[in-house]
């Protein structure tokens, strides 16, 4: 069983936004600090699976869950949790450097496996969004592709295999920006003139004289 001091949690677990979620994070962190790993893990697993947990609070809870799993030696579960973290944060955050070395090592290993597929997926999504003229999100996708290849989280062979995609993404960044600028410069279409409704005419029948016989 491995344990790291509670100070680790202070720098790695972002504050939660909701009151209930914030209490859960605090409670789990306290349990971890007191080496009550089983109970802390159970609470973290329940909170991350709860559909009412705010999205912003999931990553802090996943980090706590990962710390407990690594401390307890639950290697398979820890690898799965690490993958969940990496898919949300494929680029390491600054606070990740303060995590225990074994946890950093695990996250790094998971990134080398997961990031190449993420690069290809985001590149294809960027192409689709560009065709749909969703320039803002397409630009985000292409820029993320470049960042993922350049972060150093990949092996040298993976970087070499993704070099062409990175080059294409760089070109699409320029193309997307140009199309976005051109679209913004286009004049707004003139409003269509609405034809006045045709005046209704009433057909008047001239009265005919009635001749009594």
- The tally of structural domains comes to 2
Please estimate the helix content. 55-70%
Rg on CA atoms, Å: 30 Å
Strand content: under 5%
Overall mean pLDDT stands at 84
- Give the SSE order as H and E letters: HHHHHHHHH
| Helix/strand class | mainly alpha
Main beta-sheet annotation: none
Shape: elongated
Work out the helix count: 9
Distance between the termini: 123 Å
Strands, total number? 0
Poorly predicted parts: 14-21
Walkthrough of the structure:
The protein has 213 residues and is mainly alpha-helical. Helix content is 67%, strand content 0%. It folds into 2 domains: 1-88, no CATH class; 113-183. It is built from 9 helices and no strands.
What would a concise description of this structure say?
This protein is mostly helical. Helices cover 67% and strands 0% of the residues.
What are the main properties of this structure?
213 residues; mainly alpha; elongated
Write the layout of secondary structure elements.
Blueprint: H1 7-12, H2 19-33, H3 37-49, H4 55-72, H5 75-88, H6 101-131, H7 135-150, H8 156-161, H9 163-185
